[in-house]
Design goal:
The protein is mainly beta. The protein has one domain: Beta Barrel (Porin), CATH 2.40.160. The protein is built from two helices and eleven strands; from the N terminus they run αββαβββββββββ. The chain has an eight-stranded antiparallel barrel with strand order 2-4-5-6-7-8-9-10. Strands 1-11 form a two-stranded antiparallel sheet. The longest helix is centred in the N-terminal third of the chain and has 24 residues. The chain is elongated. The two termini are about 75 Å apart.
Length: about 260
């Protein structure tokens, strides 16, 4: 019995020594390399762009006739005062530059567009045959605007505002006995504000939707009179022109620092 126990102990001791020796011969476990830090490409709006746009434009010209006279002059002024509301198609092009800091985008944009605006208002004072006629017409509009936006991925939400320039023609006709006409065909300067959203659908191309409010100021025609009126009680006519522009556009961004990497 003693011999049997001694044999079992010796066998077990031998197996243990063999296992320890085998483990010593195995190579040390190498630590796994750290996982790479993911690199995320994010759209960057910095750069120069140009594009085209098209949409709808509508306006309102407030026509106000006033007089300090007596007799028929007040009746004429009352009948002829009102608004002209032209509307039509617009199309043009734009060029601009953006600079992005974090999620904020600063930029400047200039554009010029054709505007199909023309409308006429007529009125006939009670007791008179000839009409009072006022016409407004504008065939182009240009703006130079700053832009301030907030970028969320490939979407840019922005506000914009600046200088507005347009060629506006006012034509007025005083049709009492002897016809008298007055007209202005001037390059008018005003201001504009608005906003929009732009979406970059590829590396170099983006689309946008935009609205602009445009105030082009006014014009006055003074001391209008005719043979049927005493000129010292002549009429004064004031125009006040505003436009609204709703349009969509597409921009091409020139190759450059269009993408940045964020770690």
């Amino acid at each position: 019995m003693r011999r049997f126990a001694t044999g079992l102990f010796a066998a077990g001791l031998g197996c243990s020594l063999i296992s320890i020796a085998s483990a010593a011969d195995l190579p040390a476990r190498v630590a796994a390399p750290p996982a790479p830090v993911p690199v995320v490409a994010v759209y960057n709006w910095t750069g120069v762009y140009m594009g085209i746009n098209a949409g709808y434009v509508w306006g309102k010209d407030d026509v106000t006739w006033t007089t300090n006279g007596v007799g028929i002059a007040p009746a004429i002024a009352t009948a002829a005062t009102g608004s002209i509301s032209p509307s039509g198609f617009t199309a043009g092009g734009q060029v601009g530059w953006n600079y992005q800091i974090n999620q904020y985008v600063f930029g400047i944009e200039a554009d010029m567009a054709y505007t199909d605006l023309k409308a006429t208002r007529t009125s006939v004072p009670i007791g008179f045959v000839n009409a009072m006629l006022s016409t407004v017409e504008s065939r182009w509009l240009a703006t130079v605007r700053g832009r301030l936006g907030f970028a969320s991925g490939q979407a840019l939400f922005y506000a914009t505002g600046g200088l507005a320039i347009a060629e506006v023609k006012f034509f007025d006709q005083l049709g009492i006995a002897t016809l008298q006409t007055n007209s202005d065909n001037d390059i008018r300067f005003g201001w504009t504000v608005g906003g929009g959203v732009e979406w970059a659908f590829s590396q170099y191309w983006s689309i946008k939707a935009e609205y602009l409010y445009v105030d082009l100021g006014g014009a006055s025609h003074n001391n209008l009179c005719s043979a049927a009126l005493v000129c010292t009680t002549g009429l004064t006519l004031d125009h006040d022109m505003r436009e609204h522009v709703a349009r969509i556009g597409i921009n091409y961004r020139f190759p450059g620092t269009l993408f940045a990497t964020r770690y």
